Amino acid sequence: MPQVTPEQALDRERLHELAQQLRVDSVRAAAAAGSGHPTSSMSAADLMAVLMARYLRYDFSDPENPANDHLVFSKGHASPLLYGLYKMAGAIDDEELLTFREFGSRLQGHPTPEIPWVDVATGSLGQGLPISVGMALAGKRLEAADFRVWVLCGDSELAEGSMWEAFEQAGHSGLDNLIAIVDVNRFGQRGPTMYEWDTTSWAGRVEACGWHVQEIDGHDAGAIDEAYAEALAAGAPAAIFARTKKGSGVAAVEDEPGWHGKPLADPEAAVEELGGVRSLQVEVQSPPAARPFEVTCASVERPSYEVGEKVATRGAYGDALAWIASVDEKVVALDGEVGNSTYAERFAAKHPERFFEMYIAEQQMVAAAVGLQTRGWKPFASSFGAFLSRAYDFVRMGAISGADVKLCGSHVGVSIGADGPSQMALEDIAAFRAVLDSVVLYPCDANQTVELVEAMRERRGITYMRTTRSATPVLYEPGASFEIGGSRTLRSSGEDAVTLIGAGITLHECLDAAERLSEQGIAARVIDLYSVKPVDAEAILRAAKETRALVTVEDHWAEGGVGETVAGVLAEAASGTPLVRLAVTERPGSGLPGALLAAAGIDAEHIVAAVEQAL
Amino acid sequence: MPQVTPEQALDRERLHELAQQLRVDSVRAAAAAGSGHPTSSMSAADLMAVLMARYLRYDFSDPENPANDHLVFSKGHASPLLYGLYKMAGAIDDEELLTFREFGSRLQGHPTPEIPWVDVATGSLGQGLPISVGMALAGKRLEAADFRVWVLCGDSELAEGSMWEAFEQAGHSGLDNLIAIVDVNRFGQRGPTMYEWDTTSWAGRVEACGWHVQEIDGHDAGAIDEAYAEALAAGAPAAIFARTKKGSGVAAVEDEPGWHGKPLADPEAAVEELGGVRSLQVEVQSPPAARPFEVTCASVERPSYEVGEKVATRGAYGDALAWIASVDEKVVALDGEVGNSTYAERFAAKHPERFFEMYIAEQQMVAAAVGLQTRGWKPFASSFGAFLSRAYDFVRMGAISGADVKLCGSHVGVSIGADGPSQMALEDIAAFRAVLDSVVLYPCDANQTVELVEAMRERRGITYMRTTRSATPVLYEPGASFEIGGSRTLRSSGEDAVTLIGAGITLHECLDAAERLSEQGIAARVIDLYSVKPVDAEAILRAAKETRALVTVEDHWAEGGVGETVAGVLAEAASGTPLVRLAVTERPGSGLPGALLAAAGIDAEHIVAAVEQAL
Question: What is the dihedral of CA A503, A504, A507, A508, to 10 degrees?
């Protein structure tokens, strides 16, 4: 063992005092709130004290400074600790600290970007690390920046597969600006974790992912200090497995089960045991000056397609993405190893330095997108629509973060054909509509797709586009304009008997049906409801007033899709116009697209039959 | 190198012939279909030929035999290979093989349980292995059975975090009846995988999870044979990383990129190169006799609660689960390390041998439930409703499998209070409604919860129950009966002016509002819409006819929940009765439940205001 110099000893005493303050403030905040996670905060107090005092480079007066390090609490429930750090940095005062979890306080139960120093909402375990991978990728691959991403992880959350997607991706990408600090306090919510303090299995796995790994005593300030120094010099992503005691510092709860997510029984005694309330502040290091960087911007022409030409909207998505990235250098793209299906490969071919291959790891893909947008990038992430369901919790949390993430799901609906139901997104409209402040777009032709991709770029928030596998005829002129929240009436006479409402593939079936109906002397209005959320209620209500029945047709389950969206508009307006909803209601199989559309009852023939019955 | 005896040489020649047949049939099936994945099948042909000829124990004439091994194609796109195996086993004929991907054929693009020898649908990568963990858990922990679970995995799917949840859980549970065969053909869909043929990183990680690991040449029948023998004797879950060539056996595609998911350009030449069409059959080993096993069934009384008592429905869920498991020995429970919140711990306390702690790995939890139900168990899996969104793709695929899985999500809505939005399920009704053949239940009191848990037990399929964090008054008498698809009118006079429709927590707000309205002389009907899917359309339409307005109130986003369900019923019936939908529309924060219900506009006061405005 090396000798500790008197100077080091003094410094360690100071670090201990800082850690004790963090413990005290965690206890006090939770006591004031009557809830929260003081014990999960106390275990990591030494780890965070050393980080704040000696390693973090962050200007709390300028959270937008691009050279700031990032500090992500992947174990978001340790929010009292995070807020204690803000107090220690002088960013908040003690009074605000004690508003923890109060209605209206920005110091919520789990951190959210309502707080200026928080990049992303955490609290759904296993997300902070994969999101941090996105930040670190931005630093390494796009910005050649000096900032580091520090992530405080819990041991329990190592059970989430998403953590392992992150370890793999970070190792593969050589993210030496990423440091994962794992607070191994051996207790989860309801009892011991799988491995408790035996960090061997995790360490072995993380090392095999190409990380630099250390296993330390997480209450030894000297060891923590050395570990951080070693991590920064590692030349690889660095993981520190720190064995700690939950509730450390207070005998009544230290390393005791049953104290997860609860204020201490006797907070006053605990504060006394910890040496009383302190108001120490640390001078957090300033970041170095931000380095300028350049983005290569290949010139790509705006794609346009001739009316009548047959083009898959997924292809137009790829073309449009390549184009908008040439006019907006902030546009980046990610794909889940299906870029030759989603056509994100067309972006990759033109802008390879802004393309991120995330392999078949949809959670990591969406998480990386969330991470990238914290640095001002505009990420478009694509996969089969069906497989985006894999990342649903990441989308949900992204919305809580107010993240600016654009998603594209290809191969939707039964119309994909022979691959069968495992590959068919039939729930994506419902799932993405039920996301805070989301937008859901479903273009029917290539020129419309281009316009809507451009609209996605401009719009901040979670925006989802659903694209079609098969080629469909181009209906709109190049440059025709389409707004989020709009619709397009494609067929209308003064005397429409019925309104057919479709989007994407079914719009073409609606047009076909309208043609057949007109042969029978029935005039049908056709509405292209390309913006499913927000929806053009006015057009729907006009149709409800001017025609005798509405028929919605969608290549999606009956729940939560186009039909229910329209139903909601009608019911709220107390419209008595009958609505017929055609949608997929039974398990589809394999087959040709046409056969499957027919089997699902959503092709032109079934639309005609539905109209005949409705009228 | 050991010498190969003449007998072994003969045998290997036979194994090679079998593998060639599998390659030929993969090429032919895909050629007939005009689509499919022959090259991904050919890489694993030797692996599967040896398995079928020498290791698999399976009675194809009796797929229900509980002693049969399980064979799961986690890489479901290699379906031509699987169907080729069925032909080789004499289970299907050549004519049927060539119906691959035809409309109406059970030989779909990806395997589904429409085929009697397929346990679960695969095709969403990363699911077969975690589901197999569930089967293996059943064999080891519940049935003391001799069957083995063989899983053919792809290398690309090792990027999915769910695979790593499975490796960890299987290692932790010592599942020595599980053998993962990884076909490392080094190509994904659009190009090389992260590690190509370097299996070191994966092998290191899997070993660190407690598996027995081998790395072999996947085209060497002798090596494969030895690897299987070693795997069976390993006393631990066994992984075999087999380096193979995609498209092996046909020079035009062997180890060539660009041939993923495509029929061969010249299938006839390929068949010739492979030695022509064969019709070899193997005598697949019969399984040993099934062993009887016993299930311990602790006696637990049916829970019942007094009217007026305050009980959280999540608590009643735990009580009910413990009870039904005492009357039905097939009931098992899983939880994502939050059993003291979901109250699955009450089941665990009574029936520890039928409880599975899945730690914070929701994908593995749902996957294990899907695996367990293939063996006739009736799994109930619980976590916070918000975190079940993590497993959405597994639920989607479970529905395609027709799996009998019961899910319970606790802590739904803003009414959970101080923990904040990351913990609030606000999209779960929408997401679970948009699942094939699903049922969505949302009880408002403890006695109703008990009845509905019993209904879940009886019902086969994906059934979701949403439970409330806080204690709410018991409204119904013990033993009151509630059916899936029903509703309950709790307040009604002959002259109701308005109908209030709630479920769960909001039902109580509706009752409170009705009381306040009656003080103003406004009679309000109150409907408890505890079965959100299927919904009691009759009760809704009756209310629409008999009252002047409907108000739905839900602790959920406005999309895809109770309000849209009701809107759908009204619009399809062409009801002109106005509907007002109260739901959560803005990002909630932390606070007390009452404050958050008020802030979201879904408490009694806002209901009263909405009624006043509507009338």
Answer: 180
User: Out of B143, B165, B273, B362, which one is annotated catalytic?
Assistant: B362
Helix (H, G, I), strand (E, B) or coil at B77: helix
Q: Which of residues 436-455 of B touch A (CB under 8 A)?
A: 436-437
Give B589→chain A minimum CA distance, Å. 7
The first and second tokens of residue A34, run together, are 């009557």
Q: Which of A121, A563, A591 sits opposite B102 (nearest CB)?
A: A591
Residue with tokens 């799994």: B379
How many residues make up chain A in this entry?
615
| Joined tokens for residue A169 | 């991706």
The answer for residues whose C-beta is within 8 angstroms of residue A106's C-beta and 6 or more apart is: A112, A114, A115
Residue that has been written with the tokens 């994962």 in this structure: A180
Residue found by looking up tokens 């509980």 in the block: B66
**If DSSP codes are grouped into helix, strand and coil, which group holds residue A350?**
helix
Contact predicate A128/A82, CB 8 Å: no
Judge whether A317 and A466 are in contact, CB under 8 Å. Answer: no
User: Which letter does DSSP use for residue B412 in this model?
Assistant: B
Of A33, A102, A123, the CB nearest to B423: A123
Residues B424 and B595: their CA atoms lie apart, in Å, by 15
Q: Which of A214, A205, A133 is nearest to A169 (CA)?
A: A133
B325-328: long-range contacts (C-beta < 8 A, 24 or more apart)?
B325/B297, B325/B300, B325/B350, B325/B351, B325/B354, B326/B297, B326/B298, B326/B299, B326/B300, B326/B350, B326/B351, B328/B378, B328/B457
- A108–B431: do the CB atoms touch at under 8 Å? no
Query: Which of B:12-31 have CB within 8 Å of A?
Result: none
| Alpha-carbon gap, residue A417 to A594, rounded angstroms | 8
H or E stretch at A431: helix A428-433
The SS3 call for residue A258 is coil
Cβ atoms of residues B426 and A427 within 8 Å: no
**Is A422 in contact with B363 (Cβ distance < 8 A)?**
no
A599 vs B contacts (CB less than 8 Å): 103
Q: Sign of the CA dihedral B78, B83, B84, B89?
A: positive
CB-nearest partner of A571 from B102, B190, B570: B570
- β-partners of residue A355 are A333
Taking chain A (615 residues) in consecutive chunks of 10 residues, what is each chunk's mean pLDDT? 71 95 98 97 98 97 98 98 98 98 97 98 98 98 97 98 98 98 97 97 98 98 97 98 98 96 97 98 95 94 98 98 98 98 98 98 98 98 98 98 98 96 98 98 98 98 98 97 98 95 98 98 98 98 98 98 98 96 97 97 98 95
In whole angstroms, give the CA distance from residue B60 to residue B281. Answer: 13
Instruction: Kindly identify which residue of chain B lies nearest to residue A384, measuring between CA atoms.
Output: B124
Nearest CA to CA, how far is A473 from chain B (Å)? 23
Closest CA to B424 of B587, B595, B603: B587
Q: What is the ipTM of this complex?
A: 0.98
From A158, which residue of chain B is nearest by alpha-carbon distance? B360
**Are A92 and A279 in contact, with CB atoms under 8 Å apart?**
no
Half-sphere exposure of A519 (CA within 13 A, CB side): 6
- Gap between the Cα atoms of B372 and B379, Å rounded: 7
Alpha-carbon gap, residue A585 to A74, rounded angstroms: 40
Q: Is B460 exposed, middle or buried (0-12, 13-18, 19+ CB in 10 A)?
A: middle
- Amino acid (1-letter code) at residue A313: T
In which element (H, E) is residue A581 found?
strand A579-584
E strand spans, A278-426:
310-311, 331-335, 355-357, 378-384, 405-410
What three-state secondary structure class fits A66?
coil
B129 reaches A (C-beta below 8 A): no
